Each structure stands twice: as structure tokens, then as C-alpha cells.
Amino acid sequence: MPMAASEIERLIKASIPDAEVTIRDLAGDGDHYAARVVSASFNGMTRIKQHQTVYAALGGRVGGELHALQLETAVPQPENSQ
Amino acid sequence: MSDSKSRIDEIVKSNDVVLFMKGTALFPQCGFSSRAIAILDHLGVSYETVDVLQDPEVRAGIKEYSDWPTIPQLYVKGEFVGGSDIMMEMFESGELKQLIGAEA
Q1: Which residues form the domain of B81?
Q2: Any idea what the CATH number is for the domain that residue B19 is in?
């Protein structure tokens, strides 16, 4: 079942209020997305935990209603680094 | 522990590097599984694969086992490492090679 990118962003932000969310529709079919989620709340979490937090925000839709979500998570970087 | 969980547990613990995937290493049935195989092949490590499409019990059980909703899933030395996105990030940073290579 297709799902709107705006809905994905809304659900993530509802659980992770400070999240900066960037979503790309990879195939143009509303079913294959790439999301980049940046949040200070990820600080100190393992990558697995960061991804699990995003999956939890999406409430079980990933792997079901939402077939594929390519996910990248990060903590905000100070402007001068990298 | 349920039957499928103990089966998964045994697979995870008896193989140093094991990928639960859709399809086989030769014929992956999903782009994400294909990407995971490409990474492992590039590292040149030996690994086992489990085709969850051939085993509905494992397919359902593995998601609970790791609290992770998607396939593929990589396990190294009994520990859940992540799905294909995490594998790619760790591959690019050299962490995956380090993790797998340490005892290989």
C-alpha cells in the first residue's frame, strides 16, 4: 500500500520532535523511500537503536504497509566539522 | 523460547557470519538482500545465508528475534549487526571489515 512521504515525516516527527527529516521517493510509486533522520536524541545510541527508534515511530508500518524504507540516521554535527 | 526462536538462535550462534535474506546468494529476490550480498562478497569473507522465503516460520520469527522489521539481517559472532543500510554505512567506514575480519 502506497504511503505519502508527508505522512512518513509526520509520524517520525510526532515521536522524535527535534528530528530533521529528509525523504526521497526512490521509485516514484509511493512505496520505496529513502529517509534521512537527524536528531540530537540519537546521541549515544547504537545505529541499531537509532533505526529501531525510527521504526517504532512508524508504528510497525515498515516491512508491511511500507515495503522499503532506506534509512540513514545521524546526530546533528557542529557546522565546522566535515 | 518458542520453536522458531530456538532454531534461529542456533543458526545465529553456530555461524560466525550469517545473513537472513530473501532468496539465495546467487539469486537474491530483493534489492536490499542483493545489496547485502554484494557487500559481503566485496569483503571476501565466507558466510552462510538463510532464505526466509523458504521458511515462513523463520521469516516471522527473525523479526521478533532482533526486534527489527525488515530482511535482510546480518549477524556476526552471534550478534545482530543490522540491515542493509547499516551494513553499507559500516562497509564504507571500514567498521564492517574490522568486525568480520578480526577473527576470520
Answers
A1: 3-101
A2: 3.40.30.10
Q: Does A48 contact B86 at a Cβ distance shorter than 8 Å?
A: yes
Closest alpha carbon to A8 in A31, A41, A27, A28: A31
Query: The whole model's pTM is what?
Result: 0.88
State the ipTM, two decimals.
Answer: 0.81
**What's the domain count of chain B?**
1
CB nearest A47 (choices: B32, B70, B86):
B86
Q: Which residues of A fall within a CB distance of 8 Å from B70? A: 62-63, 68
Per-position pLDDT tens, chain A of length 82: 578 899 999 999 999 999 999 999 888 877 789 999 999 999 999 999 999 999 999 998 888 888 778 999 999 987 655 4
Domains and CATH numbers, chain A: 5-74 (3.30.300.90)
Q: Is B25 left (phi over 0), alpha (psi -120 to 50) or beta?
A: alpha
Q: Residue-wise over B43-80: b if at least 16 C-beta within 10 A, else e?
A: bebebebbbbeebeebbebbbebbebbbbbbbbbeeeb
